[in-house]
Design a protein that fits this description.
The chain is mostly helical and 158 residues long. It has a domain of 109 residues. Helix content is 83%, strand content 3%. The longest helix has 63 residues. The chain starts with 6 loop residues before the first helix and ends with a helix.
Amino acid sequence: MSMGRSIIDEIENLKKIIENAKKVPFSKYITVDRDEILGSLIRIEAMLPDEVKQAVNITKQKDMILQDAYDEKMRILKQAEEEFRKKVSESYIIEEAKKEKEEILKTAMEEGERIRKEALQYANEILAKVEGVLEKALTAIKESKEEIVNEIANRQNY
């Protein structure tokens, strides 16, 4: 977030600005310092992307984990293929090499699938945590917004 101030602090600041604003005589309107309101909104806007950036970074991490799993799978498959070719070149163990190739390929496929599954589970856990953080932030923002709307409505009743 910001250096010492949070979104909630900025929303509280907006509420104080509205609460302390001068009423326009014979109307329901108030006068506020435009620059002060805009400054607070700009600071809120600058703070919000942190959660969004975190979600994007987690998605990138998930993609990197999946890519690493795929690369590892391909490395294992390449290694298995190289081992297979080496064994095939020795004519007296051709049959054994075929069996071993199948076993190595099977192991490589299982290992690749296991790594991919773990990567997806990890990514899902991280995204669930971020989702919780974002839901809490959104709830706090909605509550603060509702308080501001209520405060505006209360001021209109004066």
